[in-house]
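Co-fold these.
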Amino acid sequence: MRTVQTVKDGEVKSLEVVRDVASLRTKVWEWRRRDESVGLIPTMGALHEGHLALVEAALRTCDHAVTTIFVNPTQFAPNEDFEAYPRDEADDLAKLEALSADLAFVPPVEEMYADGFSTSVAVSGLTEGLCGASRPHFFGGVATVVSKLLLQALPDRAFFGEKDYQQLRVVTRMARDLDIPVEIVGVPTVRETDGLAMSSRNWYLSPEERAVAPTLHKVLCDIAGKLSNGDASAVAIGAGKSVLENAGFGPVDYIEVCGADTLEPLERADRPARVLAAAYLGRTRLIDNVPVG
Ligand code: AMP
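Predicted complex below.
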């Protein structure tokens, strides 16, 4: 176990780093036995301000914040960027220390997936459209690793970003369906000043692509505005897709208007709705979403 000490408001705080489930459990149970609440923040590392907003939300509402850093192999297809995914543990831990977060759980792959691992968690329906259509392996990997993390730590709350809106809905449904006694909390998307949603994958963008990338958010906001004015989804989406393609995006994987809770496609925003999109910019696949109204 590694402990790092920082001083904040005159008080010495320590970030502990554990790499095995038994140490994670011991620590969390110690807190919960003392009636102190615990927030869990699952991440794949390469932490940026979007991730840190989740840690801050946990620290605001819980006595302790546990951040997990694990690049989960089962949510990447063989042709995806598992090997290339950015990793910088020292930098991640420094950022958590600076926030006075309590604990980081950084397991090696063999701690999460023992030899002969053969169980997976599948959430039907919600996972079939949007990102699930082009990344059919993805939500099975996410639901499996998140259910493991929730059961390993058994926190009071777990924090997920609206940036990955479909994932937030899937995790919420999974925890409810499996009676995992953890409250799932959604946190609004943190953006760069030009509107681009912060993402570890933004590191892949060339300077030219980075300049074009905020168009995705602008297009989603335009579509949401048109829907609020009563336009049909298909018309607003068609116009938005052209703007993206003219700006240099392509292929556009999807732009859809969906019910905010169950993600069913909507012809019009006649109930709480969300506009969601995924599009390639060069070799980088960007996703984003905004509420309607
Ligand atoms: P990741 O490391 O990409 O798996 O993300 C870990 C968590 O951080 C997920 O719940 C994401 O939705 C959340 N997250 C990532 N980017 C942002 C952002 N820009 N704003 C808010 N949450 C985010």
